[in-house]
Amino acid sequence: NNFENRTIYLGNLHPQTTVEEICNVVRSGILQSVKLISEKNICFLVFIYASAATHFFAQSNLKGLVIHHRRIRIGWGKNPGELPNSIALAVTAGASRNVYIGVIDENHHDNDTYARNINNNNKRKPSVPEESVLRKDFSEFGNIEQINFFLNGFCAFVNFMNISSAIKAVNEFNGIHKDDIHRRFDNRYVKYRIRFAKDRCGNPPKVYNNDKQNSKNKSSNFNLKGKNND
């Protein structure tokens, strides 16, 4: 009985498949963790909610899941049991595997708007550390899936393999001992806001609009005079 199971098994992966490529096609719900076992060409996804795992299982088996031109086998993994209370509480407060790192501007509440304004005015703006530095520093909290930069380096997103790593990073940079953690990283992140961002795996799957496409195809069968081209 997999009614309360939160773990999905992925098999028949291409040997060159990366965790980033897997997460790029996973939708339906945020993940607690992702574990790729490259030597066996398999991966285990643990969703936060069992309902999300069930939805992903059903949709993937119905529509198919393809990575590197291979159809992936979808199954159930070992049931991890109930979500730990500490993680459940953090998720209700917005926690995910994705951590946002952006420059703090005391005169602007909306940092994204501030960044765009600077960018549009061609002014010199601060930027977050380069990828190699971010990867080295934040790997101390856990394994990293990917790092993305936006707005020409004004902000970055560090996606961890496990939500616990992200929770640890955000808590330490914003906790009562944050001065200690900043000194540990030579105060590189004192001027940055570090918080949770959305896990892209929680985005809804793209829906193909058959009605719209059928209408488009139908109209394309007629020329400008209203005659059928067939």
Automatic annotation (TrEMBL):
Entry's Gene Ontology molecular function annotations: mRNA binding
PROSITE patterns cross-referenced by the UniProt entry: RRM
Domain RRM residues, every copy: 6-79, 97-199
Highest taxon listed in the record's lineage: Eukaryota
Span list, region Disordered: 203-230
GO cellular component: cytoplasmic stress granule
Gene3D superfamilies in the record: 3.30.70.330
Pfam families given in the database record: RRM_1
Keywords, alphabetical: RNA-binding
InterPro entries the record matches: Cwc2/Slt11, Nucleotide-bd_a/b_plait_sf, RBD_domain_sf, RRM_dom
BP term (GO), one: regulation of gene expression
Protein name: RRM domain-containing protein
